[in-house]
Every structure is written in C-alpha cells, then in structure tokens.
Amino acid sequence: MDEVKVVVAHSERATLRVGDVFLKVDADEARVDIEVEAMSLAPVPTPQVLWRKPPVLAIAALPGATLGRLGGPSTGSPAAWAAAGAAIRKLHDAPLPPWHGRAGRSSGALAAELDAECALLVANDVLPADLVARNRQVAEAAFRPWTAAFTHGDLQIAHVFLEDDEVTGIIDWSEAGQGDALYDLATFTLGHEEHLDEVIAGYGTDVDLDVIHAWWSLRSLLAVRWLIEHGFDPSARGCEIDVLRSRM
C-alpha cells in the first residue's frame, strides 16, 4: 500500500498523493470544471486526468521536478527558467477560453479589494503602515489597460514541472481563464527575482518591469492575512512579507 501524503490542505480544498496519483478534493464543483476544461484547452503539457467523481479529481503525477518553491532555494539552469518562460508565452498566445479567470479581474474591483485589505492589515497590526503604504503605491502600476490572454491564474513556481530543461507539465488550473499575462509572469517569479531575466528571455518579448513589481506587491498584500488564517507563514524567509520588504 502506497503511503498517503498530504500535499496541501486548508478549508477550501486538499490535495493528497498516493503513489503516482494525486487526489484533489474540492467542494466547489465549478472550480473543478474550470480546471478540467482549462487543461483540455491549454497548448502546454498538463497532467492526465485519470477519473473524476465529485468532489474528487484524480490526476497522474508528472515526470521531472519544479524549479523550487516560494521561500525555498531555486534550482535549475538558466535554460530551464527560459524554457518555463517559453511555455508561459505559448499559453498566453493560445486562443482565449470563454471565461474570465483570477488574473482577469477588473482594475476597479481589484483596487477596491486591495484598499480594503490594506486597511485591515494596518488596523489589525498585521503589517507596519509604512510597508503597506509603499507597496500599495507600487501596486498602482498594475491598474492599466491590458490585452486579455489565456492565463493560468495561479502560476506558482511549484506548479511547473521540468526535466532536462524541458517543461513536462503544468498543474493546478482552477484559477485559469482570460486575464492579464503579466500576472502569470509575476506569480511565477514571486520571491525569485534573480531569475526574472531568464524567464523573460524565454518568453521572448519586452515586459514592463514596473507592472511585474506591481503584481508582486499586490499579490503579496492580498495573500498575507489569508495565509496566516489558513495556517501558513508569510513571514518565512523569502516569502510574501520579504517580497513586500524588498520594495522598500
């Protein structure tokens, strides 16, 4: 009997690994619908769906390994990081899915959410007021017109697998949809700024670095309180609070 390993678990969803099978448990059936549909449309390698019986989705493990994780050391050659950038560009150039994703929220709605979250962070002494104010200022650059792309929506470094400097698969598509391409690039390089140039080289087009920095600040500000409430530590070395401090 293979050991059951808890990959991630919180009040919204859980992922277990049993041998070469991942079992994703999600009470939100619509979110799983999006994940399965996005994987079928994406022009990049994705895991094989083995079966689905709500609220459980079973997918096959991918070969290779990730380039690291947020808060941990990064691995892989410059060519591997560039290969990830090229795969992200291929996704962004694909025909749009018929729905909006996490990266597709309107600037007005996002700004209102961010302002409310910043107020809570300061009022509850979660973060210093000057740190919040500076990153809120940096985040302003994300609120600009953008051309919709096919975005992953949660393209953390731990969601992209590579082997021999080639992408073997991208996982966790429940936030996918039409959105801002630079949100994906910023999410992938969050906490690993030293590899941004390599990713952009593989991506193959000019990128507005101010917008990347804005998304780093914005995503981190919105994540800190949620992470604390769900048992994670955004103050760990290299994680969200360090990302916010780097903008000072």
Question: How would you characterize this protein structure?
Answer:
- 41% of the residues lie in helices and 18% in strands.
- A five-stranded antiparallel sheet has the order 1-2-3-5-4. It has a two-stranded antiparallel sheet with strand order 6-9. The protein has a two-stranded antiparallel sheet with strand order 7-8.
- Strand 1 and strand 2 form a beta hairpin.
- The protein is globular.
- Helix 2 packs across helix 6.
- It contains eight helices and nine strands.
- The protein has one domain: Aminoglycoside 3'-phosphotransferase, Chain: A, domain 2 (Alpha-Beta Complex), CATH 3.90.1200.10.
- The protein has 248 residues and is of the alpha+beta class.
- It has helices spanning 29-41, 78-92, 107-123, 129-139, 181-189, 196-203, 209-229, 240-246, and strands spanning 4-9, 13-18, 21-26, 49-53, 56-60, 148-151, 160-163, 166-170, 177-180.
List keywords for this structure.
two-stranded antiparallel ribbon; Aminoglycoside 3'-phosphotransferase, Chain: A, domain 2; 248 residues; AGP_Transferase; 5-stranded antiparallel β-sheet; Aminoglycoside_PTrfase; alpha+beta
Tell me the name of the CATH class: Alpha Beta
Residue-averaged pLDDT:
94
Sheet of most strands:
5 strands, antiparallel
DSSP, total strands = 9
CATH topology: Aminoglycoside 3'-phosphotransferase, Chain: A, domain 2
Given the C-alpha coordinates, what overall shape results?
globular
Radius of gyration: 18 Å
Going by CATH, the architecture would be Alpha-Beta Complex
- Total domains, how many? 1
Structural class: alpha+beta
**Low-confidence parts:** none
Please bin the fraction of helical residues: 40-55%
Strand arrangement, largest sheet?
A: 1-2-3-5-4
